[in-house]
């Protein structure tokens, strides 16, 4: 009996440790903070950082600011260590996204992390100009950056559209963000008063991933207003 319990326990640990991007996305879609916490603790390298990034977003939404801050710090440390060992456009893009969220949580970090974010995205673009996640993070960055400082809603839409096109390319390993790109482009359209265009993009996000919780929330929010 003890042997069976040990084997079962090792199997569960193995399954948790090898959580892939799809597992993490599925947990994030349902805001399953318990699963995201497991993945963030038991995964390694990029998956660990990505799980912490999604955990931070989920925790921030539900008001768990301490967990969000801790998760962002963990993601940052993991990615910085990885980049010290090997340059990677995906790691640079995710670290830029982590820095961007840290700035959103604490504006005082904007002066230092803002420049590092820009530099990371420039390096990632030079390394892999056709990486859709790089374009997506650049779109998110542009959404929150005033036009006078190189951002703006038009630029956010252009970059999100670029990401959407690049997501049509084959992807084998790190493949997150397709539905998210449509969602951010829709948000930029909404900010510019193009609600019908925004809803079309959010529906496109749902067509890609029917379980994508954020686009579903935005569509339901608009439906409740009509």
Automatic annotation (TrEMBL):
Residues annotated as signal peptide: 1-19
InterPro entries: TPR-like_helical_dom_sf (IPR011990), TPR_rpt (IPR019734)
TPR repeats: 179-212
Domain of life of the native organism: Bacteria
Keywords: Signal, TPR repeat
Protein name (Swiss-Prot/TrEMBL): Uncharacterized protein
Source organism per UniProt: Shewanella livingstonensis
């Amino acid at each position: 009996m003890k042997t069976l319990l040990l084997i079962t326990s090792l199997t569960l640990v193995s399954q948790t440790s090898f959580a892939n991007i799809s597992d993490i996305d599925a947990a994030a879609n349902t805001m399953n903070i318990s699963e995201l916490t497991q993945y963030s603790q038991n995964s390694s390298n990029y998956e660990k950082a990505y799980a912490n990034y999604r955990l931070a977003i989920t925790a921030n939404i539900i008001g768990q600011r301490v967990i969000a801050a801790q998760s962002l710090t963990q993601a940052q440390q993991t990615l910085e260590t990885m980049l010290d060992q090997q340059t990677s456009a995906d790691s640079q893009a995710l670290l830029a996204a982590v820095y961007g969220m840290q700035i959103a949580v604490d504006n005082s970090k904007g002066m230092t992390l803002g420049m590092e974010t820009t530099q990371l995205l420039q390096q990632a673009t030079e390394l892999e100009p056709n990486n859709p996640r790089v374009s997506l993070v650049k779109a998110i960055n542009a959404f929150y950056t005033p036009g006078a400082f190189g951002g703006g809603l038009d630029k956010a839409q252009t970059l999100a559209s670029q990401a959407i096109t690049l997501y049509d390319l084959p992807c084998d390993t790190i493949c997150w963000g397709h539905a998210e790109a449509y969602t951010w482009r829709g948000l930029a359209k909404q900010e510019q008063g193009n609600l019908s265009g925004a809803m079309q993009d959010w529906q496109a996000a749902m067509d890609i991933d029917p379980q994508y919780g954020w686009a579903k929330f935005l569509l339901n929010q608009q439906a409740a207003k009509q």
